[in-house]
Amino acid sequence: MERNCPVCGTALGPQDDHCPNCGAISPSGAQGQPAGQNHTMKWFKFIIYFQLFLSAILGVVNGIGLLTGSTYSSQGLDPELAYTIFPGLRAVDLIVGVGMLALAVLAIVVRQKLAHYCQRAPKQYLILLGANMALSILYMIAASAVLGEPVLDASTVSQLVVSAVMIGVNKVYFDKRAELFVN
Questions:
Q1: Which of 28, 148, 154, 165 is deepest in the core (most CB within 10 A)?
Q2: Which residues of 42-61 are buried (b: 16+ CB within 10 A; e: fewer)?
Q3: Using one digit for the tens of pLDDT, what is the confidence trace for 80-129?
Q4: Integer distance in angstroms from the first to the last C-alpha of the chain?
């Protein structure tokens, strides 16, 4: 019976535990696991089919919102008035907005590399998560300096804590699957 890779469709040899093309675990699974038992790849699929696309979409929306000032309009504030009262805020919004757009593009690039099991893709994914977290911290610090009061609330703190935990969890996850990323 001929076996094919469930990810890319490449024909597999009788002894192949991993696809020679993309590195995915073969239908018979590693260490003789039966097909369908490889539930650990569900997280990977969530990352490449949902999380990174959503991250890119939100990065574009939020980046454009900061670049155009529509972030303030959606909150019922006049962006020009905000920029008049706090002139440094426009520069902060422009820098962070461009950063968000750049990270949105990077999310798609990293997604493609992960999907093709590129060797450095897990590290690039972790760097992307860290860069998103760093950009959030940069915005809080810069906006706080411009506004003269801390821009920090419980939801922002919890978001940063969750981000840090996710970096750690994903590091462990990808370290355990390093043999898959061979391209």
A1: 28
A2: eebeebbeebbeebbeebbe
A3: 999 999 999 999 999 999 999 999 999 999 999 999 999 999 999 999 99
A4: 27
Contacts of 118 (CB under 8 A, 6+ apart): 181, 183
Determine if residue 39 is left, alpha or beta; phi over 0 gives left, psi from -120 to 50 gives alpha, anything else beta. alpha
The two tokens of residue 85 are 């009262």
**How far, in Å, are 34, 102, 132, 154 from residue 66 at the CA level?**
50, 13, 15, 22
Cβ burial of 92 (10 Å; 0-12, 13-18, 19+) is buried
Please name the residue that has the structure tokens 């898959």: 180
pLDDT digits (tens, 9 = 90+) for 131-152: 999 999 999 999 999 999 998 8
Domain spans of the chain?
Answer: 1-38, 40-180
